[in-house]
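Our working data are protein records whose layout never changes between entries. Instead of coordinates, the fold is spelled out as a row of discrete tokens. Here is such a record, shown just as it appears in the course material:
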Amino acid sequence: MTPLLQVQDISKGFPGVQALTGVALEVRAGECHALLGENGAGKSTLLKILAGAHRPDTGTITFDGRPVEIARPADAQALGIVTIYQEFNLLPNLTIAENVFVGREPTRGPFVDWRKLNQQAREVTRRIGLDMDPRRLVKDLSVAEQQMVEIAKALSMEAKLVIMDEPTAALSETEVERLFRIIADLKAHGIAVVFVTHRLDEVMRACDRVTVLRDGKLVGSAEVKDIRVDDIIRMMVGREVELHGRGGRVAHRGATVLEVQGLTRMGDANDPHAVRVRDVSLTAHAGEILGIGGLIGAGRTELARAIFGADPIDSGKVLVEGQEVAIATPQDAIRHGIGLVPEDRKQQALFLSLAIRPNLSMAALDGLTERLGFVSGSRERALVERYRQKLSIRMASQEQPVGNLSGGNQQKVVLARWLALNPKVLIVDEPTRGIDIAAKNEVHHLLFELAEAGIAVIVISSEMPELLRLADRIVTMREGRVTGELMRDQATEESLMHLFTHNQTAA
């Protein structure tokens, strides 16, 4: 069978970095093909070459039976190659219909035919199960709905190959299943899918074949039915990585450090009926990892932001070490020993164009300031070096832009920022989103170490296997309310999903 896409001997270098060396990839029509590798393996560079954002230094690309040159994104689209990036390429202030057909709007004379535009958009969105008014603004949609708009845009372009870069990173289990049904429908219509993910269970469920890159080189390809997850991990990292155990960890639960009583956070003025968090009560103890689970929209992130003072609360109390505290701003939370690693490190935690040094040290500057009000450069550099060693942060120098680090090392920089303040409570929202298998394992063990050091660690995760591995106790939420609490030995994926989808509180 002739491949739809055939990439041969592709190499690409940047100043000081050889991103790809002699890489090959074959994708057949009507298959879902997983492209895997650690961060820095070369996946993104290869995707950008196929999308026309980069030009290769050497190599050839054959598409639909003929040699092609993809010099710009318009060339890729003309061939029927559409890429859906992890950071969506949508215009938030335009409607669903306008985003789906942007630059290709149907016209009547010199004017846009709005009726036809909305009709065509409704037809293509209904095909993928997004049954909503095409005149809705994209900024008002959930992340999952925005992803559906991206897929609708791809279908409207009569795509032959759809590249999905981390498509499930922000989706709930229910939404992931919906995406898999869409992929099956694409395959049934002869459309190929290149699926980039760090979640190997999804590869086994949704993909037909897999290609693995490591250090910019091809490691190998295989049929999914002929390979095990452990084999894929070994191909990706070149060694065994233990992903399920807890490293011999036994929780030593200490005194209550954080207590939340009846916390309520209402919706904004534009939507007075939307309740973000409703009457939530919970405790977190020194030396334990408390997991908070729920589907997308359950109120987990909103709860974390309210505790941290990033959003105001309407009622309820927060107690630290038994004393009620007033937290109106993040500065108040920091003063009381509470830190927050947000779910989107690039948008909410890091200054990507700044160096690693100020990104890591900025929360601890009070302790680095000399008598005249100037920051001690030597003490700041020593602080950064201490946490570079402690967390094994891989970087060329302290002055390297933090945006140039891999996702796993960026996450370590954010964690180090809070550890420099010796927090009593550390809330970590989606600790391993968008990072590779080996880095995920390192972050997990780091969280274990923080709990062992007596910090009350609160982990919010959309991945049930991650919650089950990390948490000593799990609180579940739905529609802003707590629906149950399970100790680690009681929790299974089935029991968690039941509490994620039911309103009643577990006994």
In short: Residues 33 and 448 are 35 Å apart (CA to CA). The first helix runs from residue 43 to 51. The two ends are 57 Å apart (CA to CA). The domain at 1-80+160-241 is CATH 3.40.50.300 (Rossmann fold).
